[in-house]
Amino acid sequence: MGHRFNPKHIEKLDNPERRKALPPDKILNLLDVQEVSSIADIGCGPGYFTLPVAHMTEGTVYGIDVSPEMLRLLEENVQREGLSNVSLVESTAERIALPDESVDRIICSLVLHEVDDLKQTLSEFKRILRADGKILLIEWEKKPMDMGPPVEERLDPETLLHEVEILGFHGQISYPNPNHYIILAE
């Protein structure tokens, strides 16, 4: 397992540089969110994707995080924005506390390099996703740079795509900027 993100560095999760590199609305458009889509944001942190996607649907948006501190911050942000369709779930990515086939879309941004068991985590994604669902994964490029986790903890995009496809999904890799990649799978 890679190191878990330290909540003391919360400013790294939402700042102008990140919004330029990973613009939430543009990225969320890849998911084709419908008016009543239910969405799981795995490793949601304070809500970088949770909040904007909650404005895109009347369905339930599950903000899922292992950190109670992150979920407290998300709750504050949800209240500040007056959202009523966000449900907070304290859970690991390897054992998601949601029923089978409970969501239409899954977002998992910059989290998979931290999980204890990648295969188990991806199997959980498949378990909670409805048959016609979509998954959006964002990860760090596996190359040296001044930000992000150590290179040895990062996931190679082709390897991650292969793991996703083993589960029966069809996916594509795209590159929104030089430091990250996106896998969109259905």
Automatic annotation (TrEMBL):
GO terms (BP aspect): methylation
Keyword Transferase (UniProt): yes
Gene Ontology MF terms in the entry: methyltransferase activity
Family annotation (InterPro entries): Methyltransf_11, SAM-dependent_MTases_sf
SUPFAM superfamilies per UniProt: S-adenosyl-L-methionine-dependent methyltransferases
Origin superkingdom: Bacteria
Domain Methyltransferase type per the UniProt entry, residue ranges: 41-136
Alphabetic keyword roster: Methyltransferase, Transferase
PANTHER family: 2-METHOXY-6-POLYPRENYL-1,4-BENZOQUINOL METHYLASE, MITOCHONDRIAL, METHYLTRANSFERASE
Protein name stated in the entry: Class I SAM-dependent methyltransferase
Organism: Alicyclobacillus dauci
